[in-house]
Amino acid sequence: MSANVAAHLALAVADLLDRDRPELRRCDGDGCGWLFLDTTRNHSRRWCDPADCGNRARVRAYTRRQQAARPAASPDSPPSTM
Ligand SMILES: [Zn+2]
C-alpha cells in the first residue's frame, strides 16, 4: 500500500473540513506513520489514536526511563527452577 494515496486522501478530507482548519499530521507512533487530522485547538495531538499509539509511546518512554535509572545487571537471568 502506498502512503501517498493515504496522504492524498487525508489532504482531500482536510480540504473538505477546511472550516475548522484541522492540521494534517503524521502519527508519532513508532512504525505507525498514519496520517490524522489534528482538530485540537492548539494542535497538540501527536498520535492517530492516543489510546493505542499514544499509550504505547508512553509505556516506551517509561521503560526507557526505568532502564536509564537502573542499568541492566542481568538482562538474561535464567528462570529459577524449583
Ligand atoms: Zn499511530
Automatic annotation (TrEMBL):
Pfam families xrefs: zf-CGNR
InterPro entries: ABATE (IPR010852), ABATE_dom_sf (IPR023286), Znf_CGNR (IPR021005)
This protein's name: CGNR zinc finger domain-containing protein
Residues in Zinc finger CGNR domain copies: 24-66
PANTHER family linked: BLL6575 PROTEIN
Organism for this UniProt entry: Paractinoplanes bogorensis
Family annotation (SUPFAM superfamilies): Jann2411-like
UniProt-annotated stretches for the region Disordered: 63-82
Biased composition (Low complexity): 64-73
Source superkingdom: Bacteria
